[in-house]
């Protein structure tokens, strides 16, 4: 290499290497301080795209798990209400069996009928107050109407849903009829209800032919017994229908719980995949930082040496 004064090539190369070492050290410090291998698109453009796509899936899966846990609570709320109604149905069946006994008098049968009506009112009230996040759960008509179920969003994919059929959320009360569904209408013999699981039951309790046949408080025991037996049949159907409804809700809860387990595992695996792409490998990055520090010190020392090299020219000029 020629001995020149205007261009100190060795110094230029040493300066370039020093800048490169400092730049790599800055990158290592940034990665170690942020915990991320990719802090901007220039770090790894393809990796950033992959990491963002994985983040979309992870966020969707995590929210899906929360959605499904809410759904489990909703299903349990509905199932608990039906269980309470079923217990009242068992009591009505007991009363109907008691009323069908020929040893009772008209006053006894009237008392039994009044209690059964009160129980029906209580069942109807359960259906009306059973709500989750403001949504009525047990108002779907068993006949007619425009029934709708519940759709559960499992992930950020719009088609990834679980549908809960409306049949699991049937109206457990008396439904609708010529009057309202309040206690006074339920106690009125002339009111005919439909669309609720208990509609046939209340009609059996309130049933009365022109001759009085089937009237529960009829003075003629055989007429009254026929009415109580009709209540027994209607109550048996009511209890079985509620059992079917509870079974469907239980099946939905099991399905949702298994889905929660699957989506939770999916989120964990996706998070692990994103970590391998995006997160800092501290062992490797610490080694790179140490290497950068040594190179910086070496380049600084060599730059100092290179800056002294033109002094040889002074020797020539003496």
CATH architecture of the largest domain: Up-down Bundle
Q: Would you state the CATH class of the largest domain?
A: Mainly Alpha
- CATH homologous superfamily title of the largest domain: f41 fragment of flagellin, N-terminal domain
List low-pLDDT spans: none
Strand order of the largest sheet: 1-2
* CATH fold-level name of the largest domain: f41 fragment of flagellin, N-terminal domain
Number of distinct beta strands: 6
How far apart lie the N and C ends?
21 Å
User: Radius of gyration from the CA trace?
Assistant: 40 Å
Total individual domains: 2
- Structural category is mainly alpha
The global form is rod-shaped
Report the mean per-residue pLDDT as an integer.
87
Strand content: 5-15%
One letter per element, helices H and strands E, the order comes to HHHEEEEEHEHHHH
What is the strand and helix layout of this fold?
Elements: H1 9-34, H2 45-99, H3 106-129, E1 131-132, E2 135-136, E3 150-153, E4 161-164, E5 175-177, H4 183-186, E6 193-195, H5 199-206, H6 221-278, H7 282-308, H8 311-317
Antiparallel strand pairs: 1-2, 3-4, 5-6
Helix pairs in contact: 1-7, 2-3, 2-6, 5-6
């Amino acid at each position: 290499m020629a001995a020149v004064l205007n261009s100190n090539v060795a110094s230029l190369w040493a300066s370039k290497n020093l800048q490169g070492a400092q730049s790599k050290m800055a990158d290592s410090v940034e990665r170690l301080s942020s915990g991320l291998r990719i802090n901007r698109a220039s770090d790894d453009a393809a990796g950033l795209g992959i990491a963002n796509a994985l983040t979309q899936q992870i966020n969707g899966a995590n929210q899906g798990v929360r959605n499904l846990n809410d759904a489990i609570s909703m299903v349990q709320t509905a199932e608990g209400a039906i269980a309470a109604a079923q217990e009242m149905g068992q009591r009505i069946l007991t009363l109907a069996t008691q009323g069908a006994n020929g040893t009772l008098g008209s006053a006894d049968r009237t008392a039994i009928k009044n209690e059964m009506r009160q129980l029906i009112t209580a069942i109807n009230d359960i259906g009306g107050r059973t709500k989750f996040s403001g949504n009525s759960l047990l108002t779907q008509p068993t006949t007619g109407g425009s029934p709708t179920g519940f759709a559960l969003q499992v992930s950020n994919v719009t088609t990834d849903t679980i549908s809960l059929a409306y049949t699991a959320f049937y109206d457990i009360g008396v439904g609708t009829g010529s009057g309202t569904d309040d206690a006074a209408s339920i106690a009125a013999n002339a009111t005919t209800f439909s669309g609720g699981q208990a509609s046939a039951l209340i009609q059996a309790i309130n049933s009365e032919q022109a001759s009085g046949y089937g009237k529960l408080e009829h003075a003629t025991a055989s007429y009254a017994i026929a009415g109580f037996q009709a209540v027994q049949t209607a109550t048996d159907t009511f209890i079985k229908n509620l059992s079917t409804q509870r079974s469907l809700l239980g099946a939905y809860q099991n399905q949702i719980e298994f889905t929660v387990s699957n989506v939770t595992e999916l989120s964990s695996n996706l998070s692990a995949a994103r970590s391998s792409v995006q997160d800092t490998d501290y062992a490797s990055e610490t080694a790179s930082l140490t290497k950068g520090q040594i190179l910086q010190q070496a380049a600084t020392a060599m730059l100092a040496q290179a800056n002294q090299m033109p002094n040889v020219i002074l020797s020539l000029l003496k």
